[in-house]
Amino acid sequence: MQYQNDRTLRAALYLLTVHLTAMLFFSVFRVILYLSNIDQTAGIEGSTVLFFRAMLRGFQFDNLTASYVTALPLLLLCIMVPGGRFSRSGVRCLNIYYMIIYSLIFGIAIIDIRYFTYFLAHIKTDAFGWFQFASMTTGMVFQETGNYPFFALAILSIATFWAVIRKTGRLLFAAGSNPEAGFRWRVYIPVAVVLLAVCLTGIRGTLKIYPLRTGNAFFSSYSLYNQLGINPVFSFIKSMHNSSGHQHNVLNLMQVSDAVPLVKKELGVTEGSSLPERSITAEGAPQDANVVVILLESMSHNCLSIESGGKNLMPYFNSLIDRSYYFEHFYSSGVHTNNGIVSTLYGYPALFDRHSMLNAGHYSGLPGNLKQAGYQTLFFVTSNPNYDHMNSFLYENGFERIYSMFDYPEEKAVNNFGVADDYLLEYGLDRLNEASQTGKPFIAAFMTVSHHPPYIVPDAYKDVAGKEEDCIIAFVDHTLETFMTEASKQEWYKNTYFILLGDHGTAIGMQKYGMALSYNHIPCVIHSPLLKDSPRRLSNYGGQIDIFPTVMGLLNRSYTNDSFGIDLLREHRPCMYFVSNNQLGCIDDDNFYVRDLDADMDFLYDIKNEHPDNQAANKPAILNKLRNYSMSMTVVADSIMKHRR
Questions:
Q1: d(CA 50, CA 48)
Q2: For a designed S-S bond to 606, which of 360, 501, 548, 611 qualifies (C-beta 3.0 to 4.6 A apart)?
Q3: Secondary structure of the chain: what % helix, strand, coil (to 5)?
Q4: Helix or strand or coil: residue 8?
């Protein structure tokens, strides 16, 4: 064949072979991601057509990613080919370059499959936070047996790719063995021009006036198909760029000067007061009641309805609702534990992928205000208190004592996340009994972990359901029942408010909209013998940021509310806002607004009629109402938090 005698054609063949092989791997990974989330396609008409449309869009994003990788070898070969400077070492260098780059790229793409299945979103820079706690993260990864097939996939993919580029490289080296032969300028010039033009076009991603961006992947009403087309490496690098360049700075959503009046009006901040401060004056004597906050790991509202064999897996929690205050429309601020802790205890919202406890400054919140009122302040965590920067943040913000893995017997640890929920609550109950003997009231917060993979299911619960994640739900419910039953036998119980809520939710069931609601819609129960009018089901909208002022209201205490929360028993929200990494959401009775920062797009969903189509263009007034409410709160919170640092 003619190409065998021409160095230019052989070099072109080498580049194209590596490029197309990489794109083939990307397509395989995309199919695996789709199959891993096939449950999200249930009931969708035309799913096959949508799948192939997503694959075609994926081709564009894959080609863009591969074109960036190809650019350097292409430039080098454009220089090497005319001079006949092919050598064994030169070819090896190109092969090593490709091997290193694509090993990293394939690694990210494969990790993204597992990440996407958990978060229903592509991996972002927030994942870097896990590497600060390498031992715990490594343990979490290797103790989760569901990751093993993906380890094998990574090894197989990298080994296969290495074999292909080595064989291709040998072909190129053979072409360059004689630098005086096999080169023609009339072949080299058009081939080089075409390859350079194609590569540059690939880097732009399109021939249109604007380069390819995340929003170009969005073509349907279904989030999975929109996300499916995006190359995870493109998404990850875009996330890095946005974070480093502050492109995701929430100030880009709305000007602070426009946001401040809206926030003042909604929160009732008087003229002359600093946002978000409001002076709350209580009538009558304050109540020296204890407060116990239990943050339940990954506890979505949807968890309460999970059944196995016709039996509900959380019977105790559901029975507790029937004896308590229950907030039906309650939302986590974000989708990470650090968001949940800060929002629940201190009343500040999550700000996209920003870590809520890192360089966060000082807050008063429940711990600070109650400590000042003479309360003991206690926090219980299952494992290393330094994880997620909890130790430093909590000690700096009102907690006097943190109980952790350093206080528990080593043999009680069940995995890298430390002790299971049953021991955490059993140990905590003993400490609360001790605290009650001092004559001072206490606030105690528990952060559970059992409902987080890798799931460690006790033998007694392994046959409760067919899936580990369902079995562990039943175990968590039992631990709560045991704790509350034992607590009810203590003298201090009758003078205590118990607040049980999720730190965030999890992906359960099919997600109908562009933002997974099950990740933010969480249960919230306030239970106490002090509540004489319970049970009550409250239908008003609220969130974790409202726990601080609501509890202060229950305790009938005067204080300065310097949070973004309101007292849900005395005040009213028209809607509730929250974030999920790169998305901002806001919901009311009929509509669900979503702002996707990566796609730079607004979405509005009719949740009353469960329509998945984007209604943003059809309902501008509703869109603006929810958009302005959520953006103004987020922008002002961002501005204030920056000045706290």
A1: 5
A2: 611
A3: 55, 15, 35
A4: helix
* CA-CA-CA-CA torsion sign (409, 412, 415, 417): negative
In this structure, what token pair is assigned to residue 77? 């070969």
Q: Where are the beta strands (DSSP E) in 360-462?
A: 376-381, 401-403, 413-415, 418-419, 442-447
Instruction: List Cβ neighbours of 617 (8 Å cut-off, separation of 6 or more).
Output: none
Q: Is 605 helix (H, G, I), strand (E, B) or coil?
A: strand
Neighbours of 214 (CB within 10 A): 23
Contact 500, 565 (CB under 8 A): no
CB atoms within 10 A of CB 227: 23
The helix-helix angle for 148-175 and 7-36 (nearest 10°) equals 170
Element (H, E) at 540: strand 536-543
Residue type, 23: M
Cβ–Cβ under 8 Å, residues 340 and 334: yes
What global pTM score does this model have? Answer: 0.88
Closest to 320 in 3D by CA, of 476, 435, 445: 476
Containing 83, the helix (H) or strand (E) segment is: helix 47-83
Tokens representing 157 are: 């993919």
Residue 223's nearest CA partner among 120, 126, 319 is 120
For the chain, 645 residues long, the average pLDDT of each consecutive 10-residue run is 63 91 97 93 88 95 96 89 68 90 95 88 72 60 80 95 87 55 77 92 88 87 90 85 54 84 94 89 96 98 94 97 98 96 97 84 94 98 90 94 96 91 98 97 97 92 92 97 98 98 91 91 98 96 98 98 97 96 94 91 93 92 97 93 72
3-state secondary structure of 1: coil
One-character DSSP codes across 149-204: HHHHHHHHHHHHHHHHHHHHHHHHHHHTS-TTSS--HHHHHHHHHHHHHHHHHHHH
Lookup: tokens for 130: 């896990």
> In this structure, what token pair is assigned to residue 237?
């690098």
pLDDT tens digits for 377-418? 999 999 989 888 899 999 999 999 999 999 999 999 998 889
pLDDT (0 to 100) of residue 167 = 86
